[in-house]
Amino acid sequence: MQDFLQQTLSGEAPRKRRGETAHLRWQWLYHGILLMEPVVPVKQALVLSAGIHGNETAPVEIMNQLVNALLRGEKPLQQRMLVILGNPSALRTGKRYVRYDINRLFGGRWQQVDDGDEARRVLRLEQALENFWLLGECDETRWHLDMHTAIRGSYHPQFGVMPQNDRPWPPAFLDWLAAAGLEALVFHRAPGGTFTHFSCEHFGAASCTLELGKALPFGENDLSQFSAAQQALAALLFGDPMPATRVKPRHYRVAQQITRLSEHFRLHMTPETLNFTAFPQGTLLAEDGDTRYYVQQAREYVLFPNPGVAAGLRAGLMLIEEGEQTQALPL
């Protein structure tokens, strides 16, 4: 197998499904799912995923360059690693998803939608993660980096979204995210159906959804914008030097979620509204019939505003920055 991405997009299994280099052994487990293990024992395990949304191509291209260098035997491997292209059918069409947003279906939520390719894909990914973690030592370090791009532009072009986690975040993990060039980290306070929440909740992995710029078609990405992330990944995978941290990420936490309840939903933001746009207390954000969403704190920042989601799904998150003085509106 010469090119992991092209092999996945072909929809066909490689003629040779396993192999080795001087540094590692690899095994094609299924379309877009590749196991890579160093020839020497290690205590680190990494799930590296991209392409959960088929129109978010820059992370796919970054990951493919790294993986192909390993497959060609050009680089050593420092981690036991599971590499995942999340939604091959959506990647082929260049769409965010075909029928269902699979990053809302993890943790068994795929059982709540119609049976089909994407629901079955989530089940396969859940099983692949479980098998991967079971293969490792009980004391190994577990990380999951799920790479995305955002639909909209952002005041923080590169940022990370952290799942709900009752355990302290490992300092080495937070240091790596800072070195990767993330300008902000958003901390969830409630469970969700994302891939990273599944890893964190069920397997104790330190996990993060990395948002690297804006969604563009294959071939239109300027990967030089993500040089810090590429260098940090090369350091993690190959043992290359870690890039110097340029800025300390700002920390935000989720204050409230805007949910589309029906076809009457209206989001009071323009299509040009950037992620992390600030709104003052009392601003009407959205309405859906008799339900209205207002800014509750002195100032809240919007993340992922999207009025086009299906009923019952998140149409936006409102954040507060940690360290800012907050005072909620009276009930």
From TrEMBL:
Catalytic residues as annotated in Swiss-Prot or TrEMBL: E211
Keyword Metal-binding tagged: yes
Domain AstE/AspA barrel-sandwich hybrid: residue ranges: 249-321
Listed CDD domains: M14_ASTE
Keywords assigned: Arginine metabolism, Hydrolase, Metal-binding, Zinc
Similarity annotation: Belongs to the AspA/AstE family. Succinylglutamate desuccinylase subfamily.
Pathway: Amino-acid degradation; L-arginine degradation via AST pathway; L-glutamate and succinate from L-arginine: step 5/5
Listed transmembrane segments: none
Record EC number: 3.5.1.96
GO molecular function, one term: succinylglutamate desuccinylase activity
Catalysed reactions, semicolon-separated: N-succinyl-L-glutamate + H2O = L-glutamate + succinate
Domain Succinylglutamate desuccinylase/Aspartoacylase catalytic: 44-236
Superkingdom per UniProt: Bacteria
InterPro entries: AspA/AstE_fam, AstE_AspA_cat, Aste_AspA_hybrid_dom, SuccinylGlu_desuccinylase
Protein name listed in UniProt: Succinylglutamate desuccinylase
Gene label: astE
Protein function: Transforms N(2)-succinylglutamate into succinate and glutamate.
